[in-house]
Amino acid sequence: MKAEEILEGAKTIAVVGLSRDPAKAAHGVPAVLQAHGFRIIPVHPTATELLGEQVYRSLKDIPEPVDLVDVFRPSPEAPGIAREAVEIGAKALWLQQGIVSAEARRIAEEGGLEYVENRCTAVVRATAAISRN
After folding, report:
1. Residues in domain CoA-binding (predicted)?
2. Nearest in space to 78 (alpha carbons), one of 24, 110, 117, 120
């Protein structure tokens, strides 16, 4: 499945590593997705609210189904996040631009998840003109 099809099929996106800093891509990209109608669920170790949404400490703490796990964490953290994404029954794992992990790919694909790495969800959204609004 192509990245555009994965994003087109996603309504609820858990963002691991959503930043408090509006100047960072890890804040701006999810904000753009939210502005285009995607449901964003922030995952952050210490924040309580980001982008007007309740923050969860881990993917396992999210009390609703997640279509896509969007990762803004360093590559070495990706395998652990991939395991959690499989555990919660996410449909896809997406590592943002600059994040690559052969192990995360293996875990995701063996767990039945679609997988994208080293691509920006906001760029794919804009290029494919995907919007939930």
Report:
1. 7-99
2. 117
